[in-house]
Specification:
Blueprint lengths: L1 H14 L4 H8 L2 E2 L2 H17 L9 H5 L18 H20 L3 H18 L6 H14 L9 H5 L8 E2 L1 H21 L2 H4 L22 H25 L4 H18 L5 H8 L8 H12 L24 H19 L29 E12 L5 E4 L14 H18 L7 E11 L5 E2 L32 H12 L5 E8 L4 E5 L4 E10 L2 E5 L5 E4 L4 E3 L5 E6 L5 E9 L2 H10 L3 H4 L5 H4 L1 H26 L1
Antiparallel strand pairs: 1-2, 3-4, 3-5, 5-6, 7-14, 8-13, 9-12, 9-14, 10-11, 10-13
Helix pairs in contact: 3-5, 3-13, 5-6, 5-21, 6-7, 7-9, 9-11, 9-15, 11-12, 12-13
Length: 631
């Protein structure tokens, strides 16, 4: 069947060379409006539910009620409004989602939602997600569509648009956007970093994989199902759902896929938006067919229906005008940008770190797993020489910023402004250094940035490589299997045994304080050579590969990497508090594994109601403030 389908396409292409006007005619061929109307209703409803949660409507005061909080805008000229005015914006957004859902003053409603949405999106890169970016794109695409021609208050009030056919591009551009959502995610997963199974671990124990665990171990589920089948699924599902003869199976697979994701990950309403838009790929008049089928089952009232929707789609070649050509050019430009943007990292070099680009438009969904062990923010008063250490969570709302060089620069500037206002004992002549220790995809903990680089003097540009970024130690990537074996061995010693793996660069030093509660702490060098120094102790020891040293607890010590290549060492110790912690954890209800309903929206009703109450309370406060200041 696939062969016949491809042969037919080839014959049609050989019969005629298509012109641009043929493309315009295809884009403007009339289509039934019912499916688009249903998508509009569902999207508006889901965005309404999304506002208190992922858009932060329930936490407006936390996000915007503290003027000294650091934000990370895409353009530094974008600044947050006051808490009260931000609350008013959320009220406007909510009215916009309501208007979208009801199809009332449709384009105005889309603008009321889209403009504040993109302002809030561009205001803080640290909150970016792929699906957040997707919602913004869908909103823009809906703005120019005729999604209010079916089941809308606009249609009820204006008979000229009620059930009027819509141009084919209204469907095509949305189909393209969701096709690229799947396909680009598959492309991003088609690398050995993902296919070797390091991005996501320990997910095979989740209850959603119970059917797979009948014939696979949890580790095999991680490797084969999550990584390999997940990659193949993303690559092919867009094609399967677009083709009519494979669509039924693809719809079922997509449904299970998104429901499983909704149970495994905290990704808000993203799975439900994907489920709600699956009907885009079906015949455009499926809601009308469904409605007619219900009517035919009811006893006939003797009245005949005079409805435009009962007519078949007219087979008339649309009149080609310059406006239609312009619209198609804009649509094709959008398609080109969305195809190119996820691979534009050779241009926007300033946003590249260990991974390429900012998280959002790149569609590298969950390709990289992060574990951050330590973030040190050091402020040096250049006049007095005093050093101050700042809590890395101060004035921030999340920790994503510390793994992006551009956001680290913005954070340093924010800290400088806040210290100038609140710490008169510190002069304005300061330097700020940030030392981030993290691991990506199960690698060894290592520094991400040069800890001796003053970020207030950073030479950062969108189009240039980050000069203070330290390279990912890929030469030690092959040690991940060895790390796993060593860890299993250490954990077998006792229930309280622990191990930490660290790597550092030549000429740098790692300073550490060992908590007195830890027992039998030892340091072993796996690769390279280090110099070990203890606080207030003149004894210096050189440790080479394979050598071990017992560590004094309750004191600071430094480890200098003196070898020409990066060092790789590990701490092993007994954590006396681990048994207590494990006992507490076992007594906690593990909701992630005991919630067996496939619809968390139903389980979270009370939580969502409370979130709505909080959001409307903030919105009320905002409008009260505006009204009082207006008179």
């Amino acid at each position: 069947m696939m062969y016949r389908f491809l042969t037919k396409i080839h014959q049609r292409l050989c019969e005629k060379m298509y012109t641009f006007d043929d493309v315009v005619a295809f884009m403007y061929s009339p289509k039934h409006p019912s499916s688009l109307g249903v998508i509009r209703i569902l999207f508006g409803l889901l965005m309404m539910l999304d506002l208190p949660e992922e858009r932060g409507g329930a936490d407006l005061f936390i996000r915007y009620g503290h003027p000294k909080n650091c934000h990370f805008p895409l353009f530094d000229s974008i600044k947050p409004l006051s808490y009260e005015l931000m609350s008013v914006l959320y009220g406007i957004m909510w009215l916009g989602t309501l208007g979208i859902m009801l199809g009332l003053q449709f384009r105005l409603s889309v603008l009321m939602f889209a403009v504040p949405y993109w302002y809030i999106f561009l205001l803080d890169k640290s909150f970016w997600n792929n699906h957040t970016y997707l919602y913004g794109l869908v909103t823009i695409l809906l703005l120019g569509s005729s999604a209010n021609h079916y089941w809308s208050l606009d249609g009820l009030l204006n008979k000229k648009i009620r059930n009027k056919f819509v141009p084919n591009w209204n469907y095509f551009i949305l189909k393209f956007q969701f096709f690229m959502l799947y396909f680009l995610a598959g492309i991003k997963k088609s690398n050995w970093e993902w296919l070797e199974g390091y991005a996501m671990n320990n997910m095979g124990h989740h209850w959603v994989f119970i059917p797979f665990r009948i014939f696979l171990t949890p580790e095999q589920v991680d490797f084969l199902v999550i990584h390999w089948i997940g990659c193949i699924f993303d690559l092919v599902i867009g094609f399967l759902i677009w083709l009519e003869f494979t669509r039924p199976v693809a719809m079922v697979l997509c449904t299970f896929f998104h429901l499983m994701n909704s149970r495994m990950f905290s990704i808000g309403l993203f799975p439900y938006v994907c489920l709600a838009t699956l009907p885009l790929f079906c015949e455009e008049d499926w809601p009308e067919r469904f409605r007619k089928a219900l009517i035919e089952r009811k006893p006939s009232s003797g009245k005949s229906e005079n409805n435009v929707c009962s007519k078949e789609t007219p087979d008339v070649k649309p009149n080609i005008t310059w406006k239609k050509r312009l619209v198609v050019c804009l649509l094709l430009t959008h398609c080109t940008i969305q195809t190119f943007l996820p691979f534009s990292h050779s241009i926007t070099k300033g946003y590249n770190n260990w991974t390429n680009g900012l998280y959002g438009y790149s569609w590298d969904m969950m390709v990289h797993g992060w574990e951050t062990n330590l973030v040190v923010v050091k402020v040096v008063d250049n006049n007095s020489g005093e050093e101050y250490f700042l809590d890395s969570t101060a004035w921030t709302l999340n920790e994503r910023w510390n793994k992006h060089a551009d956001m680290c620069v913005q954070y340093a500037q924010c800290v400088k402004e806040n210290l100038a206002d609140h710490s008169p004992e510190i002069s304005k002549n300061i330097s700020i250094y940030i030392d981030v220790w993290c691991s990506m995809n199960g690698r060894i903990q290592q520094r991400m940035f040069n800890p001796n680089y003053d970020l207030l003097k950073a030479n950062w540009s969108v189009f240039e490589d980050v000069e203070w970024l330290l390279p990912l130690l890929s030469e030690y990537s092959g040690f991940r299997k060895k790390i796993s074996k060593i860890s299993e061995d250490v954990y077998s010693w006792s229930n309280s045994s622990e191990v930490i793996f660290i790597s550092d660069f030549p000429g740098m030093n790692f300073e550490n304080f060992v908590n007195p509660e830890l027992k039998n702490v030892s340091l072993e060098v796996v690769e390279g050579s280090v110099r070990y120094e203890i606080e207030d102790n003149k004894d210096v020891k050189i440790l080479n590969k394979g050598e071990r040293e017992q560590i004094e607890v309750g004191k600071f010590h430094k480890i200098f990497t003196i070898s020409e290549k990066p060092s790789f060492f590990m701490y092993t110790y007994m954590n006396s508090t681990k048994d207590i912690t494990d006992q507490i954890e076992t007594e906690k209800p593990k909701l992630r594994y005991t919630m067996y309903s496939p619809f968390p929206l139903l389980e979270d009703v009370n939580h969502r109601v409370e979130s709505f109450k909080k959001m409307f309370s903030h919105i009320y406060n905002g409008y009260q403030y505006v009204i009082k200041n207006a008179y």
